[in-house]
Amino acid sequence: MTDNTSRSARSARVQVLQHRGKSFVTGLRWHPLGSVTGHMKEARQYGREHQLDIVAIRRTPAIIQAGFVARSDDVTKGMYSLAATLAGQLGDSWIAAWRTESDLDQYALVAVYQGGVISGCDMIGTGAEVRRRVAQQRSRGISFTHEYLPLEFEMGGQPLDIEELLQPSNLKREYRLRPLVFGLSKAELMQLVILGVIVAAGVIGWAQWQNHQAQIAKEAAFQAEQRRLEELARLQKESGVEQTPQALEHPWAKRPSVADFIEDCSNVIYQLPLSIQGWQFTSAICDGSQVLSSYKRSGNSTADKLIQATQGHFSDRPAFFDEGNTATLKFDLSIPAAGDEPLKEAIVMLANLSSWLHSFTQSPVLKEVPVVVPIQPAIPGQPAPPPPPPPQWKLFELHYATGITPLDSLSGAPGQGLRLREIKTEYKSGHLIWSVIGDLYAK
C-alpha cells in the first residue's frame, strides 16, 4: 500500500483499507456453498441465520464460496472484497502478507487453498499476529504453490506487488460486495418453475444418482484398502519382519526403534562442529525426521561465510533469526519404522525402564497421558463410522535431562514398547547437556 492507503476499523474482525479511492474489506466470514443452481438461496439462508446481510460470491471450477459481513460493520455494497480481488488474480493456491502502512506495525494476510479462501486468513493484524497465522497454516501441512511474504518476516517467499494488483484496471465487478435480499428474486422464481418440470423426470435421474453414489462409495472403499495394504507393505519392508494388519492400529509400529533413532540422530549431532567460521554452536534438536542445529554469531563472523562453509553439508541453506545473529542448520533424516511388537504389563515395563536409567544415575519422569484414537473419516455417500473402541494399551511420556549422551544411557536399554520423540542437546559452560523425550506403550 502507498501513503494514500489508510485503514478504518469497523469491528475487531472486519476492517476496510482505502486505496486510490476504492474501499477493500477484510475479515469476511468465508463459507462454501454446495448448490450450483441454488447457491444464492443457500447464501441468503446462511446470512439470515447469522445476521449477515452483505456478501461477496466467488466461483471457481473447484468451489463456490461466499464471504459474509454485516451492514452494522459500516460496510456497504460496491466496496470490494480484498480476498476476492487477490484470489481472482493470483490463482488457487497461495498465501500473501504485506505491510499496509510504512510507519505502523500493521499487516494484511490472505490465503487461498484449493480455490477457496481459508477461514481466518482474511485479516489485518500486527506483524507478530500475521507471522503466527502463517506458521499455523504451515503446521497444518498445507503446501502453497506461491508464498508472497515480506522480507522482514524471514520466512521465505517473495514480496507481493500489492500496488499492481489493486490498480483500478484490475478490479472486476465480481469482486464487489452486494446485499443479500431475503426472499426470492424473479430469476429464482423462474428457476423454481423449471425445477418443477425437471422433477417430473426426477425418478430416473434419482436412480442413476444412487447408482453413481454407490460406485463412488465402492471406489473410495477400494482406495482406502489399497492405502492400508501399501502402508502395511511399507512397514514390512522397513522393519524386515512380516506385519499383521493389526500393526496399522498400533502407533508404535509406525515409529523408529530406539536404537535406530539414537544412531541416526547421533551420527549427525556428534559431527556438528562447535564453531563454523566464527559461528558458535548453541544447541541441536532431533525429532527423527530432521536435525536442527543452532549457531550464534560471534566477533566479525558473517552470514555469507556461514552459507559458504555449510554449502553441500546440510539439507538446506541456513535460516537466520534474531536480526541475523542466530542461524539454524537443517539435516533431513529418513529412519525406518520399527514395526509391531507385543507389549508387557505397564508395571513391569515401567520398572524395567526406570531401573535401567537409575543405574546410569538418571532421574526419569514417566507420566501416564490419555490415549486418543483417531476417528476414521466417513466414506463418501456412506454414514459416519461408529466411534473406535477404547485402546488396549496405555501411554506414558518419558522425560529426563542428563550430562550423559543418549547413545551411552539408552544403548541396550529395554526398548520394548519404547519410542523416542525428541533428543536435544545444549552447549553450556563447555559441556553438552542432553534431554530426551519419548513415549512408552504398555498394556
UniProtKB/TrEMBL annotation:
Entries under InterPro entries matching the protein: PAP_PilO
Domain of life: Bacteria
Pfam family of the protein (one): PAP_PilO
Stated name of the protein: Type 4b pilus protein PilO2
Organism, scientific name: Pseudomonas gessardii
